[in-house]
């Protein structure tokens, strides 16, 4: 027998939560655990710009033959335009190379594989807390991870001094994973001044930045959310970025993401790309096409692009509105001061609720959230906000 000694893996905390939610028969149950955007009706709909691009593709697409290993060059170029800005030297200059990967997860994994396979580093520093998959992606790619503190629980803020202090212990050549914006799970991002300090610190310490850019456009805007990455680029000649189109195009199941690697010169970038190709070839051979063709169609058509920007703005603004409403309503209900929720960015918020309070929300009110206290603000809408406020108020007053 080969398989009888295998232990069952623990359930993925978030996917496990979804399973439990599905089984709950209460009519007014609410899922604040999932990491997908929902509209005011609680639906994760397909963006109009995506539907239109799909119609165009249906008409024009002539083959389902394989894509190049790194995806369509134009897709990579458009992704770099979003990351660095239209006029950046990294769009066409040749120092930055991009490769389509299956989602942000695929981009993180291919990036980690590349680092490991090329002996670039053996240790990656990851924020504590973070998107839980980061740790396992690092280890399954053969990297060792260390954690740096990120969250100041007492002040609902970034533990900036402790973060830098801990990263000071990193060895020259270690990798540091940073969230570009909308930090998952805390919703707390560095300020512009803090990004400057982080970027210079990494350059001085000769640490390699690896930036997870999963939520561009969900914080303050497409350009605004790129501030951190562009600041890293100002001081660090070499770095990696894993971007995702799952959230900002609502293309969750199409698995569309991009790994971009920036090198100090074009000659190095060409060699880097040749090795990234090997990493892709051995992991997935070549990428899925549909998502990247949608993104390429939308971003290269001025009308569709304007529609996308508008729809993305709509998602961002709805979440912001819910943040403000939630904190006001909680204050009015006597639950305490939740103003910090309005300072956080993106889909998620660290609510400050503890494990027992989260459990009570589920048990007594059918409201599901992650045990860490993370709630998905994108799951709140004008129909469920009052019952959410009532439930949170009841558990914090207990
Ligand atoms: N990085 C972070 C911080 C995320 O929150 C997620 C998804 O939740 C991802 C990466 C992965 O995104 P994708 O679905 O594109 O693989």
TrEMBL record:
GO terms for molecular function: identical protein binding; L-tyrosine-2-oxoglutarate transaminase activity; pyridoxal phosphate binding. It comes from the Bacteria. The keyword Repeat does not apply. Residues 28-392 form the Aminotransferase class I/classII large domain. GO terms for biological process: L-phenylalanine biosynthetic process from chorismate via phenylpyruvate. InterPro entries: Aminotransferase_I/II_large, Asp_trans, PyrdxlP-dep_Trfase, PyrdxlP-dep_Trfase_major, PyrdxlP-dep_Trfase_small. Its cofactor is pyridoxal 5'-phosphate. The keyword Transferase applies. Homodimer. Belongs to the class-I pyridoxal-phosphate-dependent aminotransferase family. This is Aromatic-amino-acid transaminase. The lineage of its organism: Bacteria, Pseudomonadati, Pseudomonadota, Gammaproteobacteria, Aeromonadales.
């Amino acid at each position: 027998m080969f398989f009888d000694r295998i232990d069952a893996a623990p359930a993925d905390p978030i996917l496990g939560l979804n399973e439990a939610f599905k089984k709950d028969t209460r009519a007014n149950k609410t899922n604040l655990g999932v990491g997908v955007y929902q509209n005011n009706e609680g639906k994760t709909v397909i963006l109009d710009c995506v539907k239109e691009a799909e119609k165009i593709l249906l008409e024009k697409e002539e083959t389902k033959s394989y894509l190049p290993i790194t995806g369509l060059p134009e897709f990579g170029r458009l992704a770099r335009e979003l990351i660095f800005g239209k006029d950046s030297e990294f769009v066409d200059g040749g120092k930055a190379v991009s490769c389509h990967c299956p989602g942000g997860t695929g981009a993180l994994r291919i990036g980690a594989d590349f680092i490991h396979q090329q002996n670039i580093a053996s240790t990656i520093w990851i924020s504590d807390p973070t998107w839980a998959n980061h740790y396992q992606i690092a280890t399954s790619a053969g990297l060792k991870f260390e954690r740096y503190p990120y969250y100041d629980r007492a002040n609902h803020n970034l533990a900036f001094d402790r973060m830098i202090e801990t990263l000071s212990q990193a060895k020259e050549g270690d990798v540091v994973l940073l969230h570009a914006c909308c930090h998952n799970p805390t919703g707390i991002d560095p300020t512009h001044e803090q990004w400057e300090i982080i970027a210079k610190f990494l350059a001085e310490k000769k640490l390699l930045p690896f930036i997870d850019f999963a939520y561009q456009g969900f914080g303050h805007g497409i350009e605004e959310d790129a501030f951190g990455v562009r600041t890293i680029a100002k001081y660090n000649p070499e770095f990696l970025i894993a971007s995702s189109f799952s959230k900002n195009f609502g293309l969750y199941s199409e698995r569309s993401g991009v790994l971009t690697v920036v090198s100090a010169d074009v000659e190095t970038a060409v060699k880097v790309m040749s090795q990234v190709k090997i990493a892709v070839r051995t992991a997935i051979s070549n990428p899925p096409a549909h998502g990247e063709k949608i993104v390429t169609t939308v971003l290269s058509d001025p009308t569709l692009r304007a529609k996308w920007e508008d729809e993305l703005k709509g998602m961002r603004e709805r979440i912001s509105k819910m943040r403000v409403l939630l904190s006001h309503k909680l204050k009015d209900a006597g639950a305490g001061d939740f103003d910090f929720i309005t300072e956080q960015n993106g889909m998620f918020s660290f609510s400050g609720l503890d494990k027992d309070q989260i459990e009570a929300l589920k048990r007594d009110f059918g409201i599901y959230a992650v045990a860490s206290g993370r709630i998905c603000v994108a799951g709140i809408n004008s129909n469920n906000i009052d019952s959410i406020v009532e439930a949170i108020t009841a558990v914090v007053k207990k």
